[in-house]
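Complex 155.
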Amino acid sequence: MTFDSAYDLVRGLHILAVIAWMAGLLYLPRLFAYHANSEPGSDKAETFTVMEAKLYRIIMNPAMMAAWVFGGLLIWIDAHRRSQGWGFLGEPWMSTKLAGVLFLTGWHLYLGRARRAFTAGTNTKSNKFWRMTNELPFLAAIVMVIAVTTEFGAR
Ligand code: HEM
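Predicted structure with protoporphyrin IX containing FE bound:
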């Protein structure tokens, strides 16, 4: 296997991990929006608690880790393939991408805290809050994907 074909394979695995992560980041707040409208302790609330726990633990956590592992590998391969070495990390498109990664990771952890609050029956955020913030990960994804596909500001 050549360096280039290894890169293409890792890139494919990275994109698959990102798809699964994004699916969870977009779906979990929808569950929160319905959960916020249900009576704490009711059968409906219990069902949402189980759905949220499974989505977060079985899909979102592993998918985020896989996106990081394959993304980290891409950084390593890129540093050896590109003429400017590690310098590409400081170019505008890659800094934008990394800022987006930090935002999505922070949002993921924030959703994890919110999930635990729902489970404990201590959620204070409204249905409206979860509907309003639901689009944030997708807005970040638009910026990040366009940053990597256009490589704006690259030397
Ligand atoms: C989790 C941490 C992440 C790291 C460390 C990371 C890093 C990278 C790196 C180094 C590349 C190769 C860039 C290149 O030279 O073309 C890449 C490609 C890509 N990343 Fe990520 N990424 C992460 C998360 C994400 C997320 C959350 C998204 C989408 C929302 C995303 C979307 C993409 C896409 C679409 C490509 C392919 C670009 C192309 O082939 O032109 N990545 N990523």
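The two ends are 29 Å apart (CA to CA).
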